[in-house]
């Protein structure tokens, strides 16, 4: 097995197309064609993580956070980032990071938090825009079913809880091939009219290559007429954060104490308590101050996230309880999520859950 085999499975689960623009995801260090001896699954890649990989004969580290976030102009070992990269290269260890591609995945980071809390009726808190595209194509009426099926099989036509979705309009198409053409229907140099079906199908943006390949291989024409447009529609199964409900309402302090225990945080900071039961809960792993207003608009009783600053807590405005459980604490189960996914895909391969604790924050 080579590194690319593992990358392929990860990116089918959490396509890199959906990572945020500011992020740095994918294979950061190493050769994707190298044979894998073992893969270490971790939240962060530190020097101690590379040492653990060496000791466990793993030449691939699958990390949630990217060790290289901004451009490196020199690699001299003057800081922890450069030292990690140097050590990895010296020991032929590849480093792959998934980060916000997994944040935006429906069954990703925030779903894992919801699972630990026990939330039901989960929905994406901030559905991602510009992640849905639409294909329009024109097919001879007799071939419409074959082309539709090929596009459906490639992943097109899924809308929320429905699949095989399309819109079809019958009409008449016209064309005249030049002297270099080789028409399947009609004759070269003659104007031809053909009964055609216009097929409209939406698809996830990351599947565009697959969709076009299915279209071209199933369509009978020498030249395929089609157009693709990006839609502003929100994707209800893709985006940042989640919101769900507790099966039974809980008293505020009791709920926060349970959260503190579940996520083993040394210090849970929160805004003013509102003396009302907690039922609806919004979550966003990592730095989530930007989504406070989204949580309020969604009607959440409490918003669980991390890295809130002093003035962020004022934004609660007696409408919501803001709870900061710590960055590491909110994302600590992410490596378990990746490990569980990969072990199902590669059951007979050396996949190891990292033991290195990468939390840089300590509590007294």
UniProtKB/TrEMBL annotation:
SUPFAM superfamilies, A to Z: NIF3 (NGG1p interacting factor 3)-like
Name recorded for this polypeptide: GTP cyclohydrolase 1 type 2 homolog
GO CC annotation: cytoplasm
Source taxon at top rank: Bacteria
Keywords: Metal-binding
NCBIfam families documented for this protein: YbgI_SA1388 (TIGR00486)
Binding, a divalent metal cation: 65, 103, 327, 331
Subunit record text: Homohexamer.
Record-stated family: Belongs to the GTP cyclohydrolase I type 2/NIF3 family.
Xref: Gene3D superfamilies: 3.30.70.120, NIF3 (NGG1p interacting factor 3)-like
Organism: Zunongwangia profunda (strain DSM 18752 / CCTCC AB 206139 / SM-A87) (Wangia profunda)
Metal-binding is among the record's keywords: yes
MF-aspect GO terms: metal ion binding
């Amino acid at each position: 097995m080579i590194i690319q085999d593992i990358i392929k499975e990860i990116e089918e689960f959490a396509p890199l197309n959906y990572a945020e623009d500011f992020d740095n995801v994918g294979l950061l260090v190493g050769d994707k064609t190298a044979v894998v001896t073992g893969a270490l699954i971790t939240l962060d890649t530190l020097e101690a993580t590379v040492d653990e990989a060496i000791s466990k004969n793993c030449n691939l580290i699958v990390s949630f956070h990217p060790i290289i976030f901004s451009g490196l102009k020199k690699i001299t070992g003057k800081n922890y980032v450069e030292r990690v990269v140097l050590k990895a290269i010296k020991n032929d260890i590849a480093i792959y990071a998934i980060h916000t591609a997994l944040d935006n995945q429906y069954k990703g980071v925030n779903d894992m938090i919801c699972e630990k809390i026990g939330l039901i009726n989960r929905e994406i808190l901030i559905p991602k825009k510009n992640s849905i595209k639409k294909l329009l194509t024109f097919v001879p009426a007799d071939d419409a079913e074959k082309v539709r099926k090929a596009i459906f099989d490639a992943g097109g036509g899924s809308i929320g809880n429905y699949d095989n979705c399309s819109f079809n309009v019958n009409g008449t198409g016209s064309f005249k091939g030049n002297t270099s053409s080789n028409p399947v229907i009609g004759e070269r140099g003659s104007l031809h009219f053909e009964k055609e079906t216009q097929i409209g199908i939406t698809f996830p943006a990351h599947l565009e290559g697959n969709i076009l390949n299915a279209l071209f291989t199933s369509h009978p024409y020498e030249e395929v007429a089609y157009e693709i447009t990006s839609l502003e529609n929100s994707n209800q199964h893709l985006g940042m954060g989640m919101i769900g409900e507790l099966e039974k309402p809980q008293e505020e302090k009791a709920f926060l104490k349970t959260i503190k225990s579940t996520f083993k945080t040394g210090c849970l900071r929160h805004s003013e308590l509102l003396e009302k039961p907690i039922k609806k809960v919004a979550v966003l792993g990592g730095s989530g101050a930007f989504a406070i207003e989204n949580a309020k608009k969604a009607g959440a009783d409490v918003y669980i996230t991390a890295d809130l600053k002093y003035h962020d807590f004022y934004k609660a405005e007696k409408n919501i309880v803001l709870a900061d459980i710590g960055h590491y604490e909110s994302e600590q189960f992410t490596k378990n999520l990746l490990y569980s996914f990969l072990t199902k895909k590669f059951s007979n391969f050396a996949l190891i859950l990292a033991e290195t604790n990468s939390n840089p924050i300590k509590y007294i």
